[in-house]
Amino acid sequence: MKIRQKAREWLQREGRLLNEPFKVSKFYTREQSWKRVDSWWFEFEEMLVEDSHEEFLNLLCETFQNSDEFYHLKIPLIFLREHKIHLGFRHDNERYSLILSAEDTNKFRELRGDGQIEFANFLQ
Asked: For residue range 69-123, what is the model confidence (pLDDT) as tens digits?
């Protein structure tokens, strides 16, 4: 089963109906990760941050490899707008690219951009 479908089923089981956009990441082990740490990887369109009328972006992080459980981060888009200069951005496809640490010492800290932005406060 694909990770997005697993996330949808988890949302339904947990009674979390989302009207806002959501992105899903599998759990990447340090061997699989570009940053060589356990992590989650997300990409989302520049338009979602810049031009969206939505209030939140929901990030669903697989708790561990092949899990049916997820961490849920509900991030205000205004927060992303305010910190966009520190986020990783891919100019080739006009997408923001986040790598969030899954390590216990800095869980949900963004590792790709230069800001080391903390997202743990948005854990639901």
From this structure: 999 999 999 999 999 999 999 999 999 999 999 999 999 999 988 878 999 999 9
Q: State how far the Cα of 80 lies from the Cα of 65, in Å rounded to an integer.
A: 27
How far is Cα 94 from Cα 6, in angstroms, rounded to an integer? Answer: 27
CA atoms within 13 A on the CB side of 66: 0
**CA–CA separation, 52 vs 63, rounded Å?**
28
Q: Could you tell me the pTM of the whole model?
A: 0.92
Domain count, the chain: 1
Domain containing 88: what range? Answer: 3-122
Which residue type sits at 39?
A: S
Taking CA 26 as the corner, what is the angle to CA 21 and CA 31, rounded to the nearest 5 degrees?
145
3-state DSSP assignment of residue 108? coil
